Amino acid sequence: MTHSIENVSRRDLLKGVGVMGGFVLAASLTPVDLVMAEEAPKYGRDGMPHGSVNDPRVFISIANDGTVSIVCHRSDMGQGVRTGMPLIVADEMEADWARVKVVQALGDEVTYGNQDTDGSRSTRHFMLPMRQCGAAARMMLEGAAAKRWSVTLNDVEAKNHEVVNKKTGAKLGYGELSADAAAMAVPAVDALKFKDPAQFRYIGKEGTKIVDGFDITTGRATYGQDVFFPGMKFAVVARPPVLGGKVKSFNESAALAVPGVEKLVRIPSPDIPSVFLPLGGIAVVANNTYAAIKGREALKIVWDDGPNAIYESKAYRADLEATARKPGLVVRKAGDLDAAMAGAAKKIEAEYYIPHLAHATMEPPAATAVVKDGSCEVWTSVQSPQAAHDLCANALGLAPEKVKVNVTLLGGGFGRKSKPDFAVEAAIVAKEMNGIPVKVVWTREDDIQHGFYHTVSLERLVGGLDASGKTVAWLHNSTAPTILSLFEPDPKREMPLELGMGLVDNPFSVDNIRIENGEAPAHTRIGWYRSVSNISHAFAIQSFAGELAAAAGKDQKDYLLDLIGPARLVDVSNAVENFWDYGENVQVYPIDAGRLRKVVELAAEKSEWGRKLPPRHGLGIAAHRSFVTYVAAVVEAAVDEKGNLSIPRVDVAVDCGHYVNPDRIRSQIEGAVIMGIGLATKTQITFKDGKVMQSNFDDYEVTRMPEMPGVTNVHITPANYALPPGGIGEPGVPPIAPALTNAIYAAIGKRIRTLPIGQQLTS
Q1: Closest by CA position to 459, among listed 321, 579, 346, 312
Q2: If DSSP codes are grouped into helix, strand and coil, which group holds residue 484?
Q3: What gap in Å lies between CA 316 and CA 326, rounded to an integer?
Q4: Among 308, 425, 560, 668, which one has the highest count of C-beta atoms within 10 angstroms of its own C-beta?
Q5: Quick one: which H or E segment has residue 267?
Q6: Three-state DSSP class for 140?
Q7: What is the rounded CA–CA span in Å between residue 543 and residue 350?
Q8: Inter-residue contact 400 to 390 (CB < 8 Å)
């Protein structure tokens, strides 16, 4: 197995194969529905998607020596997509994985369609296209062999990098057939013959190591921060501390007097901070990063902070609470909530608060660029290379074909690196460098204080119980600033994509339900964060389910199953109102309550739910469907007499339909548990005078080694190829916080409704 972070364009690949005299396949792929990012494409027979997605193409080349090169057109941030996508192709084309070379695609929308690696959709949306590409290659190789042997296609079979003559036993290697196969017509999509899942050699099997594993663990891998060219320069940017701020004055001479500082470059502030443009400010260019940082300190900038200087977290929370307590815009209703609530034997109310969160990827943003001869080339760790390409071209006034974006490995992404403002900064600075490469480096402080933050949220719920403890009425008001504020001026309400993340598609079997959305203006950049609004909605709903169970005097697992109700498809699309005023054709996809029940039951079984626990230990359970994947978590929490929290054990059950690499599932869920614990216990971004108050891991804390669970068990349901593939990178996060807080209540009887938990257990 060979691998490389070599970036290839279609032209480069064709050129290289021409030299080798090999085979190239540029397969037109069946497109995929453009739907809510949290949801799945529509599926036809055999669980295969259909629809439209900008005509993506996957390229395969076969050299004369039999080496198969497979292009990965997605960005790898630790989820293993550089292994998973080529692995699907290799399996379907009967290639020997040990003879496969993985190469990374450039940002190229014309060739590859959508390359934005977000929304846990690489496998969800590209399982079929990759299989199509592999199946077409296999059939072309078989056709070439049949023609050479003058036999029918039924007389030949591709098997493990060779085509076998079933009559004579003769074999031809893929390298021997590459030139002939290149001359074969690409099979029509409807004529493609796929493997039966029982024939898979790699898909769904244990034991496939990630292609970059050796380089990563030995320090050889190239991330955005690792790009280096002889004679290159280094830059840091002084950005406005308040969204929309602008430079009033600065000390140019003091900055240029710092040894090593060579140039200052103004980065324009957008008139309306929006989309993924830089915040603006002044770049300090030097011959080393330390000098650039010291030069930035010497600037002594005076800022005009603008209107967002009013933003203050405590006051904003009070505003959210006041809004959530008033009637909001109804986005779903069923039954007669008011009558059911009035007739309830018991009424339970609770409000849940989640603060802003920063992505805090282990590798802060970085981008290297060179501009010369009317062209720009960028090397960077981005989730959305096409957005980086287009924004750099626009910023420099260059034609699209004059810009090239090379994608490195990403040291974490979580949605932050799909906003390529840092790549645009590098392009703007490089334009002033007379052809000298320059790397824009973000420090950890830059990363924490100038990001795109997960939305702050206030979730108010009211439940009505009958005399037997059954929930007969459910009111939920969700109030949070929206991601749409990046794209439209002051939209104030959550958009359909966010509302469809566990809010309007609540699967509970409650006859009388009303879901409302309150107004909340944005005063900072709101961006998607791993699992997006599923986090706040799941925390509130699953915590409230635990509160209702306690109020009814019932076991929380049993009560959760009662709320979910019997196995059925829950289609709430007819109950959704005001969806919405943006002229979008939004479809809310049904939830399979049976699958949700099964992961709850599996997690409970594997965690030995109901087992005898030591004093001040408790079990908590939560479940959530997101990105077409069903996840349930059982957390064991222990709180000592001093209020110190520990987590002896976590069990997570996952149903993602069918999948490629089970080891990657376990890794992603284990990482999601760590992230979920961090946002539940420590992590928060707060604002004062419009400025972020946190700056590094000393005050923006994440889960550390002593706070890790004693053991994390991941239980994957068997692959079901009649179901569509679900996402994995994000769905593990939402159930962790509510399972933990439910466990804390079971351990010591204390309810946690505000995240992070922080010192609440000691007060």
Answers
A1: 321
A2: helix
A3: 16
A4: 425
A5: strand 261-267
A6: helix
A7: 9
A8: yes
Task: Please give the Cα distance from 224 to 226 (Å, whole number).
Answer: 5
SS3 523: coil
pLDDT of residue 17: 34
DSSP 363-374: S--EEEEEEETT
CA distances for 512 relative to 37, 163, 339, 459, angstroms: 28, 62, 9, 19
CA proximity to 360, closest of 79, 695, 667: 695
Do residues 658 and 725 make contact, with C-beta atoms less than 8 angstroms apart?
A: yes
Q: Which residue has the tokens 């635990």?
A: 546
DSSP 8-state code for residue 717: P
Q: How far apart are CA 269 and CA 274, in angstroms?
A: 10
Other C-beta atoms closer than 10 Å to the C-beta of 682 total: 17
Give Cβ neighbours of residue 26 (< 8 Å, ≥ 6 apart): 10, 57, 59, 186
CATH class of this structure's domain 313-358+452-748: alpha beta
Instruction: Check if the beta carbon of residue 295 is closer than 8 Å to that of residue 261.
Output: yes
Q: What was the pLDDT predicted at 29?
A: 37
Q: Given the structure tokens 């699953």, which residue do they identify?
A: 542
Cα 240 off chain centre by: 27
C-beta of residue 367 within 8 angstroms of C-beta of residue 378: yes
How far apart are alpha carbons 506 and 534 in whole angstroms? 11
How many C-beta neighbours within 10 Å does residue 330 have?
15
- CATH architecture entry for 2-217: 2-Layer Sandwich (3.30)
From the number of C-beta atoms within 10 Å of its C-beta (0-12, 13-18, 19+), residue 167 rates as exposed
CATH number, domain 224-306+365-441: 3.30.365.10
Q: At what angle do helices 81-92 and 122-149 cross, to 10 degrees?
A: 30
Q: Do residues 637 and 645 make contact, with C-beta atoms less than 8 angstroms apart? A: yes
Report residue 349 as tokens.
């109310």
Task: Spell out the residues 6+ positions from residue 706 whose beta carbon is closer than 8 angstroms to its own.
Answer: none
Contact 63, 104 (CB under 8 A): no
CA atoms within 13 A on the CB side of 142: 24
Structure tokens at 525: 């950049």
- Where do the domains of the chain lie? 2-217, 224-306+365-441, 313-358+452-748
Burial of 443 (0-12, 13-18, 19+ CB in 10 A): middle
Structure tokens at 127: 């399982």
pTM over 0.85: yes
Q: How many other CB atoms sit within 10 Å of the CB of residue 421? A: 25
Cβ atoms of 686 and 756 closer than 8 Å: no
Domains 224-306+365-441 and 313-358+452-748 are alike in CATH topology: yes
DSSP string computed for 402-467: GEEEEE-B-S--TTGGGSTHHHHHHHHHHTTTTT--EEEE--HHHHHHSS-BBPPEEEEEEEEE-T
- Average pLDDT for runs of 10 along the chain of length 763: 54 38 47 29 33 44 94 94 96 97 90 87 90 92 97 97 97 96 89 94 94 95 96 98 96 98 95 82 98 98 96 98 97 96 98 98 98 98 96 96 97 96 98 98 98 98 98 98 91 90 95 97 96 98 98 98 96 69 53 97 98 98 97 98 98 96 96 98 98 98 96 97 92 98 98 97 87
Instruction: Please tell me the distance from the alpha carbon of residue 399 to that of residue 366, in angstroms, as a whole number.
Output: 24
CA-CA distance, 400 to 392, in Å (whole number)?
9
At 341, phi and psi to the nearest 5? Answer: -65, -40
* SS3 assignment, position 309: helix
Residue 132's φ and ψ, nearest 5 degrees, are -60, -45
Both structure tokens of 752: 């946690």
